[in-house]
Amino acid sequence: MTELSVNLNAVAFLRNRRGLPWPSVVDLGRIALNAGAAGLTVHPRPDERHITRADVPDLMNLITSEFPDREFNIEGYPNEAFMALVEKIRPHQITLVPDDPSQATSDHGWDFRTHALKLHAIVARMKRTGARLSLFADPDPAQMEAAVGTGTDRVELYTGPYGDAVNDPVAEAAELERLGQTADAARKLGLGLNAGHDLTVDNLPALVARIPDLAEVSIGHGLTADALEYGMAETVRRFRRAYGQVV
Question: Could you give the residue numbers annotated as active site?
Answer without folding.
Answer: 43, 75, 197
